[in-house]
Specification:
The protein is α/β, with parallel strands linked by helices. The chain has ten helices and ten strands. α1 packs parallel to α9. Helices cover 40% and strands 13% of the residues. β5, α3 and β6 form a beta-alpha-beta unit. The mean pLDDT is 97. The strands form two sheets. The chain has an eight-stranded parallel beta sheet with strand order 3-4-5-6-7-8-9-10. A two-stranded antiparallel ribbon has the order 1-2.
């Protein structure tokens, strides 16, 4: 079981990925995202997750450079993720999109590059491009985001390389039990976006009860639940105290009964689009 913020899981290609990272969805480009990334790195975070569509890759890159300098670490100590957006799908367009993201970030490589959504009829050629980037050692790991089981099966019939990561909406109201089992069976690391359900879970009575018993916040309980389920988690925050709070989840353990109580909250409720019914 992970016991510190730098703890990692090993992807099926041998690359080590931190269990906890900072998500920057809807964090404004410029000083806001620079400050959040810099604070996270100084606090001990080693994973930062962005995407082309977030339109903050330049600020993330600046935050990385400043954070590295202030924390006294190297680029190689970090795990940086970005994603190819739907409008850039297709083999050549994906290669170009990757290079554009690298340029904006000011990096020579990414640790993980993901297909952002399973756009019907387009993601297979995009996956082929990711495989090329990986084979040419231009990216350390490749994966997908928002893929259901049938999307993963489609890719794996076609792919030379099995996705290393599947980043999906995952929280106590959407615990994705079948998808999590499928990913574990095929050694695909599941990763949670919106693990706190955009704050909607913070007033849940059961979670409050469990949090009080551990002298922790509800957010900390949820993130700990992720980890104990074997799910990488990337909570988003721009507030320094929240960034610090979200990282303080390694000094307590949820009991098996508490894990079951939290799992029982599932009602398959999403805050984001349904991957099978999303108007791209």
């Amino acid at each position: 079981m992970p016991n510190n913020l730098q703890a990692t899981t090993t992807l099926h290609n041998g690359v080590k990925m931190p269990w906890v990272g900072l998500g920057v969805y809807k964090v404004k480009e410029g000083s806001e995202v620079v400050a959040a990334v810099k604070t996270a790195i100084k606090q001990g975070y080693r994973s930062i997750d962005t995407a082309a569509i977030y339109k903050n890759e330049e600020g993330v890159g600046e935050g990385i450079r400043e954070g590295i300098k202030e924390a006294g670490i190297s680029r190689e100590d970090l795990f940086i993720t970005s994603k190819v957006w739907n409008e850039d799908f297709g083999y050549e367009a994906t290669i170009e999109a990757y290079e554009t993201s690298l340029k904006k970030l000011g990096l020579h490589y990414l640790d993980l590059y993901l297909i952002h959504w399973p756009v019907e009829g387009k993601y297979l050629d995009t996956w082929k491009a990711l495989e090329t980037l990986y084979i040419e050692n231009r990216v350390k790991s490749i994966g997908v985001s928002n893929f259901q089981i049938h999307h993963l099966e489609d890719v794996m019939k076609y792919a030379k390389i099995i996705p290393m990561v599947n980043q999906v909406e995952f929280h106590p109201k959407l615990s994705q039990v079948e998808l999590l089992s499928y990913c574990k069976l095929h050694n695909i690391q599941l990763e949670a976006w919106s693990p706190l359900m955009q704050g909607q879970l913070l007033e849940d009575p059961k979670l409050i009860e469990i949090a009080k018993s551990h002298n922790k916040s509800v957010a900390q309980v949820i993130l700990r639940w992720d980890i104990q389920n074997g799910v990488v988690t990337i909570p988003k925050s721009i507030q320094n105290h929240r960034i610090i709070e979200n990282s303080s989840i390694f000094d307590f353990t949820l009991s098996s009964d508490e894990l079951k109580q939290i799992a029982a909250l599932n009602d398959n409720k999403r805050v984001g689009p349904d991957p099978d019914n999303f108007d791209f």
